[in-house]
UniProtKB/TrEMBL annotation:
The keyword Membrane applies. It comes from Variovorax ginsengisoli. The chain crosses the membrane at residues 21-43, 55-72, 148-173, 185-206, 218-240, 260-279, 344-366, 378-398. Keywords: Membrane, Transmembrane, Transmembrane helix. The lineage of its organism: Bacteria, Pseudomonadati, Pseudomonadota, Betaproteobacteria, Burkholderiales. The keyword Ion transport does not apply. This is H+/Cl- antiporter ClcA.
Length: 452
């Protein structure tokens, strides 16, 4: 009888695959969705408290030292954050420590409470990945299955924190490598994204609603104008990622003791907020998530320099070691930049704010497909074609740079085959400095596109 059952599943392998991954993905989704809900409630409370007590910005250096010291004392193994998860998916070695979840949760809430300009996606993704990986030992999963488990955790975390289940599923597949996706993880990632979003809503999570007013009809001018905007969005994403990594490397070079690095960044942010306030300029809109300004960019024209202000404050915060994420600040940068470009390109400002919202993220994270789907989930399907134009242009113009150093170059952006396959983005500068012969020796023979 048992032999007959094995024969049945061999004849229908898809049933065995679905029967295996459906419950695992659901468990991952419940863990990640619940963790994201708890995080979002804490984040809302921290934001309300900071807004009610703006003088707390002066305690940001002390908060930075506390976060830096805790990570230096207990979190060195997980300090790489999202990059650790990506590395473990590509080259599984050891389980992601469970302490990644509470450390990044606490570090992010403290960063927001005192006024750092950071996001939230990194926290949700890290919690989802860390919680999911704890099932590896419990279920005795093989390395290949562990890769899929971690991808499902990333999808669940992303989907639940933004309320975009399909974009979250694709993000977990797409973020690992430029030009290559693993479709063996498609089903678990989709299930994890959909269920995690529902779990978050069951806990009472309410996501921000963005309203796009007028839409430009699809035509020659609107496509060309959005393509031009896409170039600007890609360059903004490239500047953001390059500046953040560059400042981080510079601070690590000159400040040897890690807890002092966010002290430096916190001091710069606090003084900048005070100095701009003394000049009758409200810089508080550049700290924290900045959701009110994002919403405003959909409703009315905003200051044309707002995108630059948020970019600088976020680069300083993340580059000096505060915890959080990059994505919501990228939403802010994109929405306000799109708002500023709209009158120049004769496009509705709410529409271009919505497109910039996703397109800057597309270039900075090298995830054009996830962001196109996100645009349609957040703003409606009508925006899809023009959002696709901007996201693809941003992705191309951002080049081989990105916010995730552990991301691999699965295939180059501009050629069918490339000697860069499987190179980490963080190693690109060293690779470019090598001789062509050394580059070829390091990368190995060229592979067919899409082949692992």
């Amino acid at each position: 009888m048992r032999s007959d059952r094995f024969k049945f599943f061999k004849a229908f392998p898809q049933l065995a695959y679905i029967g295996k991954w459906m419950p695992i993905a659901c468990v991952v989704a419940v863990l990640a969705g619940s963790a994201s809900a708890f995080f979002l409630f804490m984040l809302d409370a921290a934001t309300r408290w900071r807004e009610a007590h703006p003088a707390m910005i002066w305690l940001l250096p002390a908060a930075g030292f506390a976060v830096g010291w805790v990570y230096h004392r207990w979190g060195r193994a997980v300090d790489a954050g999202n990059n650790l998860l990506i590395d473990q998916i590509h080259d599984p070695t050891k389980m992601v420590p469970l302490r990644m979840a509470p450390l990044v949760l606490g570090g992010t809430v403290v960063s927001h409470l005192f006024g750092a300009s950071v996001g939230r996606e990194g926290t949700a993704v890290q919690m989802g990945g860390a919680l999911a990986d704890q099932l590896t030992r419990l279920l005795r999963l093989a390395p290949e299955d562990r890769r899929i488990l971690l991808m499902a955790g990333i999808s669940a975390g992303f989907a639940s924190v933004f309320g975009t289940p399909l974009a979250g599923a694709i993000f977990g597949l797409e973020v690992l490598a430029i030009g290559r996706m693993r479709y063996d993880a498609l089903f678990p990632c989709v299930v994890a994204g959909l269920v995690a979003d529902q779990v978050g809503m069951a806990w009472g999570v309410h996501h921000t609603h963005y309203t796009v007013g007028a839409m430009a009809p699809i035509g020659v001018w609107s496509v060309l104008a959005v393509a031009v905007a896409g170039v600007a969005f890609g360059l903004a994403g490239r500047v953001f990622s390059t500046a953040t990594h560059g400042l981080g490397a510079l601070v690590r070079r000159f400040v040897a003791y890690p807890p002092l690095r966010p002290v430096l960044g916190g001091g710069v942010v606090a003084v900048a907020v005070w100095a701009l306030g003394a000049a009758q300029f409200d810089a508080h809109k550049y700290i924290g998530l900045g959701i009110p300004t994002i919403v405003q960019s959909f409703e009315m024209p905003v200051a044309p320099w707002d995108f630059l202000g948020k970019l600088v404050f976020t680069v300083v915060s993340l580059g000096t070691g505060f915890k959080g994420g990059e994505v919501t600040p990228l939403f802010y940068i994109g929405a306000t930049l799109g708002n500023a470009l709209a009158p120049l390109l004769h496009l509705p400002f709410s529409m271009l704010a919505a497109i910039g919202f996703v397109a800057v993220f597309a270039g900075a994270a090298n995830t054009p497909l996830a962001t196109i789907v996100m645009a349609m989930e957040l703003f409606g399907p009508a925006i899809g074609p023009l959002a696709a134009v901007a996201c693809v242009m941003s992705y191309l113009c951002a080049g081989h740079t990105g916010i995730y150093h552990a991301q691999r170059v699965g295939a180059g952006k501009y050629a069918a085959t490339t000697p860069l396959e499987d190179l980490r983005l963080g190693d690109m500068a060293r690779h470019r400095a090598m001789t062509p012969k050394a580059q070829a020796g390091e990368a190995g023979p060229e592979k067919e596109v899409g082949r692992p």
